[in-house]
């Protein structure tokens, strides 16, 4: 255990978070009065915080009494929901990795710069099943060896921290998948989250140590910066973005025609375009091509930009106010990382001014967390569709303003942004206070040390992990072992890697299996005597157990039970439990009575005052539990929304992948077809024409309802008579025709190539103009994929 653990105070905020799922919340440290044998009073320092984990571990180890009150049901729902969010987050991360890979390659396909053999390899990468089945390791010896390894990696985060510093950008994604979503994948469980943050501290510390220039700290795109960004994309971060940003962004994008462009060159282009449309020619004093300086000096351009600047600063102010007002919504882990950035900066650069330190904190909080969501809200599922051109540009400008506010502003690349400097000047003090307030959270080392002791006393620690994650992590450890095994305290890691031998190769995706890997320490056995391990007295252990037993009994009694009446009578509660037919209640009642006797014999409590100290603490626990039900219900509502968002994002990513897969099939079939002509040959030598699919008929109302029609110029009273036919004469080619009921010929016809649609989507051109209507490109792609995918052949 870390030696710093005993030096640092625990976080009250985190103690509540880590214990809430079990139903017990610690109260603040306090002095309570206990009775001695001679009846006098003495002050007993209550170690309520320190004992919380022990209290929970005892009830966990003796969980033969199932509590079914409203709080227990709410907490079970909450636990299930958190587990679902963690599992879905991992699936989304894997899908996003696939989509990123496709994005990096799709341009080559669109431009026909990829050889046929490369296409086959590319396509085969996604032909295999992505749904991982359950499985096991081939033998128990391997299971035990990897169980030792992953327990060591999880409980001693310094090894993963060292590995993160060694890997390349090409390796970081697969490592982050295992670290963020598997080894520390339970995003709402205190121990795993705290271990993960400890790993972050180690990585950040090394980053500060090895970065010579203050100005380049945390700026470059490195494995460390990718780690920090990935951390913010987990469930708690997604919940924050939804609560804080979604409403502001949705309000803004409703104003589709609000143009707030302030780049003088673009405004100038708009002016001359409108002048040409109005007069048919350019004004004599407005040449088509001008420099940025000339455009900025144009009186008409200045007149257009001036009110836009005021409006932009007003919008940015509303975003900033919302962010500052929701300080308490910020996930603890993100605030703790901000705190480490401040602490490390102060230690390494003692002369650094406060405002310079704030720029580093802002660089993480805004650059890595908030601004990506503001610029691309659809990717974060904060809105339902990609915003139109003008709101999209406004969001980009708002993000730039917030970034300039949080960082030291630089207008070298975009001088026109300097016109917005009053926003920075007026809010600099305000933002620096907010960034410092972000860092004001407690540490968790003491509670983590306690949690680790408790973990060692459990026998059911498991890790749900895939075979490829196991082999991939092993391979990275082996590859970088020379660097990893140089430092102190790496002997155990070295022994395990030597015994495991060479890392096995990755299995094909369709053979990958998910397994429950039992975790246990090779060098530390189960702790039977926690009181000795944690340097607490036997009377404290008995007191906490007694409190746990009586709280469980009271929660299990019917609300109308005489035993539950106030003031509490502990003997009556124990007797009532022992008189019940339920064997678990009988055992708990017997144990409660034994504990009262033991505690009275030790002089901790006395029957003379009705065991007042124990009664008061039981009452306090019950009061905390009473308030926890409402908190649990409120949290369920929030997390339900997060889970829905993550599921929607999953559906969006799956749709993206299906579109890409079909495109790959199409490219391949066209490439092969070009070798033998447009018309292929069957095995008999006869010509075999491409199969024509369609036409499929869609009403205007149907396409509008599905979001395929983004805008319509068709009068309302005529829309019922409008329909569309879509045909695919050959793979990758589509014909959309617009028809009016009663007329034989279509009003218009549009030929589409799949390549063109994908390229439009890649370039964020989401509107396809069909004269009478504008189609939404992603929705069109989804519709074509659904109706025209040829089995085994693409589109």
Automatic annotation (TrEMBL):
- Single Gene Ontology BP annotation: negative regulation of Ras protein signal transduction
Which residues fall in a compositionally biased region of kind Polar residues?
1-14, 28-37
What is an example of a GO molecular function annotated in this UniProt entry?
A: GTPase activator activity
A GO CC term attached to the entry: cell cortex
TM annotation in the entry:
none
Q: Which domain of life is it from?
A: Eukaryota
Coiled coil: present as a keyword of the record?
yes
Per the record's keyword annotation, is Coiled coil included, yes or no? yes
Coiled-coil region list: 64-91
**What are the Ras-GAP domain coordinates in residue numbering?**
191-407
Annotated spans, Disordered: 1-44
Q: Which UniProt keywords apply?
A: Coiled coil
Matching entries from InterPro entries are given as: RasGAP_C, RasGAP_CS, RasGAP_dom, Rho_GTPase_activation_prot
Q: Which protein is depicted?
A: Rho GTPase activation protein
Source organism per UniProt: Ascodesmis nigricans
